[in-house]
Amino acid sequence: MEQYVIKGGHPLVGEVEIGGAKNAALAILAAAIMTDDTVLIDNLPDVNDVNVLLDAIEGIGAMVHRVDRHTVKINGTNIRNMSVEYDYIKKIRASYYLLGALLGKYKRGEVALPGGCNIGSRPIDQHLKGFRALGAEISIEHGKVVAEAHNFQGEHVYFDVVTVGATINVMMAACLAEGITIMENVAKEPHVVDVANFLNSMGANIRGAGTDVIKIRGVKSLHGTQYSVIPDQIEAGTFMYAAAATKGDVTVLNVIPKHLESTIAKLKDMGCEVEEFDDAVRVVSKGNLKSTHVKTLPYPGFPTDMQPQIGVILALCKGTSTITESIFENRFKYLDELARMGAKVKVEGNSATVEGIEGFTGARVSAPDLRAGAALCIAGMAADGITIVDDIVYIQRGYEHFEEKLRGIGALIEKVSSEKEIQKFKLKIG
Ligand SMILES: CC(=O)N[C@H]1[C@@H](OP(=O)(O)OP(=O)(O)OC[C@H]2O[C@@H](n3ccc(=O)[nH]c3=O)[C@H](O)[C@@H]2O)O[C@H](CO)[C@@H](O)[C@@H]1O
Ligand SMILES: C=C(OP(=O)(O)O)C(=O)O
């Protein structure tokens, strides 16, 4: 089992290049099978979730040609199998997008119920509500969602909760329904807009992505395209927060600063200096950070996928901070691990109270999920002494070349898989 071993106490300094957004890329890859033409997708992040989804896409008969680590060509002409197997699906959340893609293109599909990070109960009722509104018959059989539509018609869909997954999934399917679909109370995340732009570049007619209401005029078919995925605002935010926690000075390159507004606002609240450029953001932290209060919300609110990373900084801020997690009910598990490094935290329901401490002490901790794993690495880089992070397979789901990028800005971090390698690392760093 691979682990990260980290020697903390060094400010991170330098520039780091941000890759393509995992959560946009996964939806775009699934949507690429909706045409029989070839689609070329660029600026893909080189992460495990992308590879698992590409395997699933190959598994249903599509041609997948990996041009290089960040570029792929997909051709969905030869899809004969409408059923996506559990082995692929259990590993990732975004597998549910194959249902919207298959249903739109072939009017039927079977996809095992999705996996992903264990951060809450994560129902998909709103996806199914949307598909049913468009005329699909849905049943759950042997762990799979089975969907079939004889008459796939545009409709009014009102989402009871703001959901990124259901917004994108139903939007994809509706592109190839007959007539007009109006989706209300939709998610406005940058990746919703990116997927809409991608589908429009394939000939879809989607308007309003990025607002509360999306209107889709169904088209008969979609065509090939070339498309570059937007930068990953969560990867960028993670490096920005690593700079803040380590009293560093880091510039994230190839980002869209607009997508980072709430992330930047909180850095400023805590007393960091933030400089915005056209496609870069510089974060400088001189320490003495101030406590603040944070509540996760759908975009443009503060992202739940940045909650563990800010939790680590708040544990080092002077004073008492509160965190309210309003999207997922089980996203505070990392705080128990952080307490092993000295953090003073108390969780009650969906709120956590964090009393700032002087500094963390290195410890052995486990990554409970993807973002929490990255957050524990940030804590390790800020801590006094050695931290070992177990279960880094979660981190590898969504951060490309994480340790290389961190080493590039001065972190002392190594991926190891044995006690011997840990000892070697300790000897190397002295
Ligand atoms: C692969 C991917 O893109 N994952 C992201 C996606 O997850 P995911 O698509 O699972 O998250 P959603 O935006 O759908 O979930 C938001 C809220 O709606 C609820 N809900 C969702 C769907 C549904 O049918 N019924 C329902 O009640 C969820 O339990 C949650 O409380 O958006 C989350 C919120 O930004 C991010 O944390 C995840 O990183
Ligand atoms: C929770 C996440 O991913 P997923 O929805 O794929 O589990 C995430 O990207 O932080």
UniProtKB/TrEMBL annotation:
Q: In which pathway does it act?
A: Cell wall biogenesis; peptidoglycan biosynthesis
- Domain (Enolpyruvate transferase) spans 7-406
Q: Which reaction equation describes what this protein catalyses?
A: phosphoenolpyruvate + UDP-N-acetyl-alpha-D-glucosamine = UDP-N-acetyl-3-O-(1-carboxyvinyl)-alpha-D-glucosamine + phosphate
- Localization per record: Cytoplasm
Q: What CDD domains does the entry give?
A: UdpNAET
Name the Gene Ontology molecular function terms of this record. Answer: UDP-N-acetylglucosamine 1-carboxyvinyltransferase activity
Q: What is its main location?
A: cytoplasm
Binding positions for phosphoenolpyruvate? 22-23
What is this enzyme's EC?
2.5.1.7
Q: Which UniProt keywords apply?
A: Cell cycle, Cell division, Cell shape, Cell wall biogenesis/degradation, Cytoplasm, Peptidoglycan synthesis, Pyruvate, Transferase
Q: What class of enzyme is it?
A: transferase
Q: For binding UDP-N-acetyl-alpha-D-glucosamine, which residues are annotated in this chain's numbering? A: 93, 122-126, 305, 327
Question: Which family is it part of?
Answer: Belongs to the EPSP synthase family. MurA subfamily.
Task: Report the protein's function.
Answer: Cell wall formation. Adds enolpyruvyl to UDP-N-acetylglucosamine.
The name this protein carries in UniProt is UDP-N-acetylglucosamine 1-carboxyvinyltransferase
Taxon lineage: Bacteria, Bacillati, Bacillota, Clostridia, Lachnospirales
